[in-house]
């Protein structure tokens, strides 16, 4: 893709006045994400690097970068904090990395809508919204470091999805301003369903420069741990809590033994051999939660209300893909899957069949108005062939795997080509310079 005759010194001169990073150590850090969670992606992506990083502070600087890339036919990879796990922001063909973290203005919060630049940290936006009685509807377990643009470009859901579904559900992401990869670049505004053209598109078809997202009423949340003797007892409790419309919750995470043993900071609250539920519930729902815990034979071992001082990490940082992070800190041979089970019958079949080879980790979320169990199971990796067998076994029995062992957009989650995203890329990136090699629809177009 890159012309062999690129004079990078001349490119740097062309970008004078902007923050340009060429230091080898920083280039390496800013070229990678958490792809190493996957033993399949490790050898494929380990040596991929950009030629330089540009960190714009405003839209006019983004425009200059785009013009330079188009003029010299240089690939461009857009990046937030780099907390993804599939190589979404790793440049396959070198070129320029556009680091958006300095575009971090919260433009306004008006009622239940926030307008922000893409580099705003999720934690900063959430804190600012709470001063006005609102909060983010959902966020990833990388709450402290992830940016809102990176979350929307590469994520799908997280803490809060038990109530508000996924980012792609109507009403969650309201609008996006996008700069095209042309010379001169155009500034487009996408609203309503048109936002799906760039939502979870890995930055392959337009540079997001501004977002409008819907907020939720802020509640005082309590972090709670409940333990169980049997895994399916814990899973049924999780489904019952998720289905309980009168109990307000933001997180319902169920982890089978031995996963709780990997949560070293929570050790005193997780008895050996027990299965656990990590929960966020509104303080007003704590009394009703106690009745549900008793009904399903659980034992509450920890509860911290919003008013109590926080000691150590908050419970959400042990859930979603942080569960994998903590497990791999103890056993780096572990990897993971992402699975929509849809019902507890499939969960139980997989749990019984695979046993300790695939320790079960569930996150409940709403899909089509119904709470379902989704999995981020750990996998004791042996070979790629065995991993593919595990995936096939799930899919043949009705589970949907969002494969975290591929960097190709369509092969990971939805498994189908999105004609809207392809058509939009053909319009806004006619030279195919944006994050090349990640969109199968573009690679296979006729």
UniProtKB/TrEMBL annotation:
InterPro entries: FAD-bd_PCMH, FAD-bd_PCMH-like_sf, FAD-bd_PCMH_sub2, FAD-linked_Oxase-like_C, Oxid_FAD_bind_N. One of its GO terms (biological process) is lactate catabolic process. Pfam families: FAD_binding_4 (PF01565). The keyword Flavoprotein applies. It comes from the Bacteria. The keyword Flavoprotein applies. Keywords: FAD, Flavoprotein. Residues 45-218 form the FAD-binding PCMH-type domain. GO terms for molecular function: D-lactate dehydrogenase (cytochrome) activity; D-lactate dehydrogenase (NAD+) activity; FAD binding. This is FAD-binding oxidoreductase.
